[in-house]
Amino acid sequence: MTDTVPALALTRIRKEFGGVVAIDEFSLTVRRGEVVALVGDNGAGKSTLIKIVSGIHQPTSGEVALDGEPVKLSDPSVARRLGVEVVHQDLAIADHQPVFMNMFLGRELVTGPFRRLDKKRMARETQALVDELDVRIPSARSTIRDLSGGQRQGVAISRATHWAKNLVLMDEPTAALGVAETAKVEELILRLRERNLAVLLVSHNLDQVMRLSDRVTVLRRGVQIGTRTTASTDKNVIVSMITGLQTADA
Amino acid sequence: MTTTTSARTIAPSSGPLARLRRAEPSSYIVYVGFVLIAVVMSIVLHDDGFLTRQNLINILLQTAPITVMAVGTVFVLSLGEIDLSIGAVVALSAIMAAVQLRDHGLVAGIVAGLATGLVVGVVNGLLVTKLRLPSFLVTLGMMGLCAGLSQRITRLQAVPSTDVAFNGLFGSGSLAGISTLILWSAVFVLLGHFVYRHTRLGAHVLAAGDNVRAARVSGIKVDRIKIGVLAVSGLSAAVAGLLYTGRLHGATYTLGSSDLLTVIAAVVIGGTRLFGGRGTVVGALIGSLILGMLNNGLILAGLSDSEQQVARGLIILVAVALTLREDKS
Ligand SMILES: Nc1ncnc2c1ncn2[C@@H]1O[C@H](COP(=O)(O)OP(=O)(O)OP(=O)(O)O)[C@@H](O)[C@H]1O
Ligand SMILES: [Mg+2]
C-alpha cells in the first residue's frame, strides 16, 4: 500500500532567524487521510513551521520529504507545484480584488491567442465551488473588502480546498470565526480527510483539536514536547504539555 | 416597491447593470466630472473659442505626453510604488535623442532616447528590489541625477531637431489625417488598457500592489514585475520626451519639468488608488483630458503665466482631495 509513504515527513527541522532559534528540532509525519494538529502557545514556532513547508522559509537544517521524496522548497511556487496548499494565518488574500481573482491568484485562466484573462470562466468556477462548499458570499465577483471576516476566511479555505492535491496546511483557520462558521470550517476539514488528503492543522482551540485530529504534536518555545494519538490522550495532558508542566519526551 | 427589491436580489451578478450598481463612486465620478467640466467650459468660454474643432484638437495634442506617461504611472501606482523621476527623464531622453539625432541620424536618435528612459527605469527597479529601498527615495534621487545630467550635457542651451522624419514621427506629422501625437497616445492607452485589465501580468501587478505577501505566496514573481513596471514607466517618459522634441523641433533641459504633478494628478483623478491594488487606464486618460481642458481654459480666459500656475496648483489639489477621500476611512 502506498499509505506506508507519508505525504509529509519532516526530519529534525531546525530554524534560526539571525541568532534566534525559532524551532529547535522538529520531526513529524502526516499521512494521507490523516489530520495532524500542531499546538503551542503564541510564539512557539507554529507559523514558522507552516512557512517552511509552504516554501516561504528555508530550514537552517533538517529534511522535508513529500511522498517520500526529499524536496528543497526554495519558494512558494515549488511547494504549490508539488500539491501543497496553505491557508495562512493572515489569509494571504488581496483586498481590492474580486473573490474569483483571489481564488485563481497566480494561476489565472486565459483564453484565445492573446492569452486574455478568462474572467467569466473563473467567476463561474468560483461560484460553483463556494456553492458546493456552502460558503455564503454575495457573489464570486464581490470585492474581498466588502466581505465579513468569516466570508474572507471561507474564501481562503475554499481556495486551498480547490487546489490541494496532496497536503493542506492550515494556520488557525477558525481564529476569527463565530460558532456557526467554525462548525462549517471543521466540516470542510473533515471533507479534506475524506478526500484522502493529508492535513496539518494549527489551532489554539483544543476542543477543536480533540474533535478533528488523529494525532497532536506540541511545540513549546521552539522545542517539540511530544506527539500523541488523539484517541488515547485527553485535553489536560495536551494542556500540560503546552504550558510546560510536562517536560519534553526523551 | 417590493417587486424592485426582489428583482434586485435575483438579478445576475454580472452584466453592465450589476457592475454599475457594485461600482464605487470613485470609479465613475471622473466621467461625471469630465462631462460637467466640458459643459461648463463650453458655455463660459464659448466666445473665446473653446468649442472650436481646432481648440479641441489642440487639447488632445497638448495632453499627449501627459497621457502617455499617465499610462505608465497607472501601473506604477497600482503596484504600490511611485516614480518621481519621469519629469526629469522626459528632458534627459529628449536631449539624448536630439544630440544623437544631430550627430548620427534618425535611428540613433530614437534608440538613444528610448534607451535612456529604459535604462533609468531598470536602474530604479533594481535599486528598489535588490537593495529594498523605497521607490520614492530611489526615484527622487534619480530625478536629481537626470536633471543635473540634462543641464551638463546641454550647458543650458537648446538642442535643435531638424530631422523631418523624426519630427513627423513624434508629434509634428500625421497619418491618415490623424496627428502622430494622438496616435502615440492611442497606442499607449489601448495597449495599456488591454495589459492592465485582460492579462495575467495586469492581474499580478494589481495583486502585488494590493497585498505583496499574498502575491509572493501565490508564486507571483513580485521583484521581476517591479523592475518591469518601472522600466515601462521610464520608457513612457522617454516617449513623452521624444514627442516634445518632435513637436517643438528641439530639446531643452526644462522639458517635462512641471509634468510630474500633472501626471500623478491625472492618474489619481482618473480613479487609480495612490497606495496600490486598484486603478484604471481609461480613467487616467480622462483625468489627463480634464487637466488639459482646464489648462486650455485658463489660457483662453487670458490668465497670465503666474496666474495660470497658481490656478493649476489649486485645481490639482482640489481634484486630488475630492478623489482621495475614500482612502481616508
Ligand atoms: N521572519 C522572522 N524573523 C525573525 N524572527 C521571527 C520571524 N518569524 C518568526 N520569528 C520568531 O519566531 C518565533 C516563532 O514565531 P511563530 O510566528 O512561528 O509563532 P506561532 O507559534 O505561530 O505564534 P502565534 O500563535 O502567535 O501565531 C517568535 O519568537 C517570532 O518572533
Ligand atoms: Mg502563528
Could you characterize the architecture of this molecule?
The complex is a heterodimer of chains A (250) and B (329). Chain A is α/β, with parallel strands linked by helices and 250 residues long. Helices cover 32% and strands 26% of the residues of chain A. Chain A is built from 8 helices and 12 strands. A 6-stranded mixed sheet of chain A has the order 6-9-10-3-11-12, with helices on both faces. In chain A, strands 2-1-4-5 form a 4-stranded antiparallel sheet, covered by helices on one side. In chain A, strands 7-8 form a two-stranded antiparallel sheet. The longest helix of chain A is centred in the C-terminal third of the chain and has 16 residues. The mean pLDDT of chain A is 92. In chain B, the strands form 2 sheets. Chain B has a two-stranded antiparallel ribbon. A two-stranded antiparallel ribbon of chain B has the order 2-3. The N terminus of chain B is likely disordered.
Biggest pleated-sheet summary of chain B:
2 strands, antiparallel
Number of contiguous helices of chain A: 8
Strand content of chain A: 25-35%
Number of strands of chain B: 4
Distance between the termini of chain A: 31 Å
- Which chains have the largest interface? A-B, 36 and 27 residues
Based on Cα principal axes, name the global outline of chain B. Answer: globular
Q: Which molecules other than protein and nucleic acid are bound?
A: adenosine-5'-triphosphate, magnesium ion
Rounded mean pLDDT of chain B is 90
- The share of residues in helices of chain B is over 70%
Q: How would you describe the oligomerization state of the chains in this entry?
A: heterodimer
Strand order of the largest sheet of chain A: 6-9-10-3-11-12
State the main characteristics.
heterodimer, A: 250 residues, alpha/beta, six-stranded mixed β-sheet, four-stranded antiparallel β-sheet, 8 helices, globular, B: 329 residues, mainly alpha, two-stranded antiparallel ribbon, 15 helices, 77% helix, 2% strand, disordered N terminus, binds adenosine-5'-triphosphate, binds magnesium ion
